[in-house]
Amino acid sequence: MLRRLVTVRKVTDIQPIKGADRIEIAFVDGWQCIVKKEGFRKGQLGVFFEIDSFLPAEDKRWAFLGSNFINWNGHRGFRVKSHKMRGQISQGLLLPLGDFPEVTGKLKQLEDEHGREEAEELAQKSSFEGALKVQKWEAMDNKTGGWNETPQEPIPSFIRKTDQERCQNLPNVFEEWKDEIFQESTKMDGSSMTVYFVRNDSDKLQALPEVDAAKQPTVVQPNGRFGVCSRNVDIAEDNNDKAAGPQYWRVAKKSRLAEQLSALNRSLAFQGELCGSTVQSNFEGFPAGFHDFFVFAVWDIDAQRYLPPKETEVMAEQLGLRHVPVVGYFPLREIATSVSGLLQRAEGVGLNKRKREGIVLKHVGSDFSFKAISNSYLLKHGE
Ligand code: AMP
Ligand code: MN
């Protein structure tokens, strides 16, 4: 599912904050967001900027946030984060529709075409980050070119990028999926890593660029092509950058993944989290020098879908790979019946008995999955 950062949302409730006379809480879907008092009424639409929205300083509408601007990826602007005010968590930025002609213009156009009611519904399904030049903030070592100036190949288009929708954006999930079985796993806080193997006889092979086998001997296997990617980049085997880059290949070689995937002789992509002492802030607390790949999914390249979670666990074990910790398989109603219940459950310990980032729920019968990030993690990490 494509992440939508800037959306039109309906305020489902407004609650006062004890002892505060200038602010109150607005609820939109599964989010609670502190707003100026009397800015919104229940049932009203607003423009909602989800956490991790990066708002560009050039747009004068963000001038009021100027004292909190940061530099990121060559741009100046404001990163929307979780924070607490008067003991209440606030996530996202909710602003009046009227501040955004880009949005009201679209609404007007939809209204002319479809009538008022349908226009409101359609507008809520649109996303406005493009129109408002809002980007998704990401830790830099995940991003194209983040650790290396040299141009790099993007992750092959035949592989689904790892991404998880936040449960707050799926307020109806607990009713609609309550009897369905989900795998509950620990969300690990490292960097997304994908290793793939494409057989020589697969029609997907032509999507890959030519490579120089002398420079990238492991990439060219007798029966197909092997590759190692971060979330966005297909990393060259001869990349000798000092930062996080080489860890991907080092970890892949340590587990002999090229040989192992070539021996399986199936066009598959193993996706997991690269974690270790030099990755991100080593939230999981691994000892110095430790790095490993924790599998969470296997993408079937020819079928263009994920293997069922249980099969993924079995395959990881067969290849001698670690898998992210699996809490178990349960009907959704036994895991949680509401967003707040799931967020409660997301708090808790992960690997190494440390507080975890959160949990990921994967439906066993389809590609549907979503995440719940612990609010205490978000607050602690300034996210
Ligand atoms: P985020 O880190 O908030 O962008 O959430 C999505 C990312 O979580 C994915 O791209 C994965 O790299 C990562 N992740 C960590 N643990 C898991 C897990 N158990 N299942 C799926 N994704 C995971
Ligand atoms: Mn992450």
From TrEMBL:
Gene Ontology MF terms: ligase activity
Domain named RNA ligase: residues: 182-373
Keywords: Ligase
InterPro entries, sorted: RNA_ligase_dom_REL/Rnl2, RNA_ligase_DRB0094
Organism domain of life: Eukaryota
Name of this protein: DRB0094 family RNA ligase
